[in-house]
Design a protein that fits this description.
The protein is of the alpha+beta class. It has a single domain, classed as Gcn5-related N-acetyltransferase (GNAT) (Aminopeptidase). The protein contains six helices and seven strands. A seven-stranded mixed β-sheet has the order 1-2-3-4-5-7-6, sandwiched between helices. A hairpin with a 5-residue loop joins strand 2 (about 60-65) and strand 3.
């Protein structure tokens, strides 16, 4: 079973690689090809370096026994107040060849735990409607609470906000997550 821990600057290159790889496999046929082709680990690495530096502990990684990043997630205070949740999961991605092994579940529960540590009792995340991962969020108790249309590279795509109204109860009923900073 992978170790879930807080990300460090040393993880940023691997996080960027997983980020680009999962976007390209997950969103092929959903987002315009040029959006996916233009993504680069170098640009994503710069983004993740800033995020990890500015928000220590809010990016977590799942690593194997050789400390190789299998997946990652990020969270924090909700970016807009259109929904009464307080916390937000900004990203959660698992390498395509590691999906279906429980890593995403461990990451999501650890992100919930991190949000609770930071005083958030509820959270939400946005998912593109054609992303098959939306069923993963539903299995873990997420409920659609809002919808919007987003524009990516000139293409309009639907997105749904999934919310968890009681993170402590979700953690109790869905399985205990350890703190990613332990």
């Amino acid at each position: 079973m992978p170790l879930i821990r807080a990300a460090s600057i040393a993880d940023v290159q691997a996080i960027a690689r997983v980020d680009v790889e999962t976007w390209r496999t997950t969103y092929a046929g959903i987002l315009p090809d040029h959006v996916l082709v233009e993504m680069s680990p170098r640009h994503r690495s710069a983004f993740w370096t800033r995020f990890v530096t500015r928000h220590p502990g809010d990016v977590i990684v799942a690593v194997d026994s050789r400390n190789q990043v299998l997946g990652f997630g990020s969270c924090g205070t909700q970016r807009d107040d259109c929904l009464p949740s307080g916390g937000e999961i900004f990203s959660i991605y698992v390498q395509p060849d590691q999906q279906g092994l429980g890593i995403g579940r461990q990451l999501l529960l650890s992100l919930f735990f991190r949000l609770v540590q930071n005083g958030h009792k509820a959270c939400m995340l946005w998912v593109l409607d054609r992303n098959p991962s939306r069923f993963f969020y539903e299995r873990l108790g997420g409920r659609v609470v809002a919808r919007q249309t987003l524009s990516y590279g000139g293409r309009e795509v639907g997105a749904s906000a999934y919310a968890w109204a009681d993170l402590p109860e979700t953690l109790n009923s869905r399985g205990r997550a350890r703190s990613p900073t332990e």
